[in-house]
Design a protein that fits this description.
Layout: H1 13-43, H2 62-84, H3 88-114, H4 116-132, H5 138-150, H6 209-212, H7 221-231, H8 233-266, H9 283-290
Helix pairs in contact: 1-2, 2-3, 3-8
């Protein structure tokens, strides 16, 4: 596009390449997350048996990598290529997609604040479903262990929630060595121990409740999570506000770039006939001329 054929309108190179550079990082990070997810599924044999994706009773943490990575990949691709090629369709798609995500986040936050008790019940149900599937998936097992260690908790509302797992329940017909126990991540940490004792939770729930607290964390993860939110409310709110502002900023930049591109296209003036190039040589035209 030659500047001689436009009436004063220009596409802002600063906005264009800022959107391009920012989104190419998102694009690459999205590809990396999807790649990690595919690698994890490959290691677990999921890719060779696709139906096993739905067999797990609890949450497969790999889904987090796949969903987040996929969204970041799509957004990064649309923003990156749209800005570089000045493609208004991709830029509008980027803005709308980012706006939908922002709206869903805002809606989720409002509903979570209004329906606190329902959210608590759903969180309890979610944790209990994952407790049932604790031994079914190594990634889920590591996620539960990390959660219980980080928040110093055990089960959704207490250690007895582990009765839901076939390996840890206290029924007479349970042949497991872990019967009436809890995972090692429920155990209280001994600073003197350098090596984790993975059997510290064996038979612990067979003891009286007054003795259990000397060996394991008896508080549930739902109350501990609520307490953590209250203690870190400023940090959590700051993160959500920061993400929201970043999304709004991205939408505004994309829309600004779309407006610049459309203004340039609208102001385009065809060059005079004297400046136009002659049509390329054509054998058909030549033969017709001389016939």
């Amino acid at each position: 596009m030659s500047g001689n054929h436009f009436k004063g309108h220009e596409v802002s190179c600063c906005i264009k390449y800022f959107i391009f550079g920012f989104n190419i990082l998102f694009w690459l990070l999205g590809m990396a997350l999807v790649g990690i997810g595919l690698w994890a599924w490959s290691e677990k044999g999921v890719l060779s048996n696709i139906s096993s994706i739905t067999d797990l009773g609890g949450l497969d943490p790999v889904w987090l990598f796949m969903v987040v990575g996929g969204v970041m990949f799509i957004l990064g691709f649309a923003g990156c290529i749209g800005a570089l090629r000045e493609n208004t369709f991709l830029l509008k798609f980027f803005s709308v997609f980012l706006g939908i995500i922002f709206f869903l986040e805002l809606t989720t936050g409002v509903l979570a604040f209004v329906f606190k008790d329902w959210i608590k019940d759903q969180l309890n149900l979610f944790i209990n479903n994952n407790i049932r599937a604790y031994r079914d998936d190594i990634d889920l097992q590591n996620l539960i262990d990390f959660t219980q260690e980080y928040w110093e908790c055990c089960g959704a509302f207490g250690a007895d929630d582990w009765n839901l797992n076939i390996y840890f329940n206290c029924t007479d017909g349970n042949p497991s060595r872990e019967k009436c126990g809890v995972p090692f991540s429920c155990c209280t940490k001994d600073p003197a121990e350098d090596v984790i004792n993975t059997q510290c939770g064996y038979d612990i729930r067979a003891k009286p409740d007054s003795e259990q607290k000397d060996y394991i964390n008896v508080k549930g993860c739902v109350p501990q999570f609520e307490r953590w939110l209250q203690d870190n409310l400023t940090l959590v709110a700051g993160i959500f506000i920061g993400v929201a502002l970043l999304q709004i900023f991205g939408i505004c930049l994309a829309q600004n770039l779309v407006s610049d591109i459309e203004a340039v296209r609208a102001s385009w003036v065809p060059p005079p006939l004297s400046m136009r190039r002659p049509p390329p040589y054509s054998c058909k035209k030549s033969s017709a001329y001389y016939s």
